[in-house]
Write a structure and sequence with these properties.
Helix content is about 40%, strand content about 15%. The protein is an alpha/beta fold. InterPro entries: KR_dom, NAD(P)-bd_dom_sf, Peroxisomal_Beta-Oxidation, Sc_DH/Rdtase_CS, SDR_fam.
Length: about 300
């Protein structure tokens, strides 16, 4: 029996890249899939319904069941329509993959309010909108899977991505609370930080030799590497996995730590600026370095 037989999945942003590969694999594993994509560019502008239609065609040619949806996750009512598409076409909903995303990279001191709002709206608010729309059905049927997409831009850091990093770290928090709130209903929520070449990271600078070398490495990482983990987390096999953050880097899968205290100091008399200055070094040895993602993952990806 296929791992997702009789399941209904909504995969947002599944007209291209990572989302497309997830939709195709889920259909191959027996799921009925709502292929959601409004067909915009990497910055969110534009609209091309053919993008979602093409993935639906591919799934049907492989013998699977799929339907297209072109609504934007950034609008609460539109997210409700996406979930309603699953209910209308297939009679239920079992899996929500919050993959849709855009980029508006800019150094913080140059970023406009519109660039900030647009990225937060699609990634963070969009993930909430979809989660909120599906959660009552998951609660009622006492089953369901949320797969959220975070990023090392938020978990670790990257230059020029204040909007994207804030959204992606916010999604990690949303994922954790979703897992806690829905646990009693046998609903899981897990987050995935993908390493894969896609149009969303096609804007990475290639002005220096180091930057070019980094992009060449990223181009080796296929979106297809991400899909098996997402399909597994969506299956009954992962019923006891929730509230976790995973990374997929080529053929390597990792589990990320989540914030916990690493060191503490105590002063019975309370703290002052002077006393804090005197013990700064005691805490400093446990400070997290000011790093970007490439500093933490300097080694060659396993492809």
């Amino acid at each position: 029996m296929k791992k997702l037989e009789n399941k209904v999945a909504v995969v947002t942003g599944s007209g291209r890249g990572i989302g497309r590969d997830i939709a195709l694999l889920m259909a191959k594993e027996g799921a009925k899939v709502v292929v959601n994509d409004l067909g915009g560019g990497s910055d969110g502008n534009g609209n091309d319904t053919k993008v979602a239609d093409e993935v639906v065609r591919e799934i049907r040619e492989l013998g699977g069941e799929a339907v297209a949806n072109y609504d934007s996750v950034s609008e609460y009512e539109s997210a409700t329509k996406i979930v309603e598409t699953a209910l209308t076409e297939f009679g239920r909903i079992d899996i929500v993959v919050n993959n849709a995303g855009i980029l508006r990279d800019r150094m913080l001191f140059k970023m406009s309010e519109e660039e900030w709002d647009a990225v937060i709206a699609v990634h963070l608010k969009g993930s909430f909108n979809m989660t909120r729309a599906a959660a009552p059905y998951f609660k009622e049927q006492k089953s369901g899977r949320f797969i959220n997409f975070t990023s090392t831009s938020g978990l670790i850091g990257n230059v020029g991505q204040a909007n994207y990093a804030a959204a992606k770290l916010g999604i990690a928090g949303l994922n954790r609370i979703t897992a806690l709130d829905m646990a009693r209903y046998n609903v899981t929520a897990n987050a995935v930080a993908p390493f894969a070449w896609s149009r969303l990271i096609g804007s990475i600078p290639t002005e220096t030799d180091d930057q070019k070398a980094r992009v060449d490495k990223l181009k080796q990482l296929s979106p297809a590497h991400i899909a098996p983990l997402v399909a597994f987390l969506s299956s009954d096999e992962a019923a006891d996995v929730s509230g976790q953050i995973f990374g997929v880097r080529g053929k390597e899968i990792m589990v990320f730590s989540q914030p916990r205290p690493v060191r503490s100091v105590y002063n019975a008399e309370g703290w002052s600026i002077d006393s804090l200055s005197s013990i700064k070094g005691s805490l400093q040895s446990s400070f997290t370095p000011l790093e970007v993602s490439a500093d933490v993952f300097p080694y060659e990806p396993l492809v």
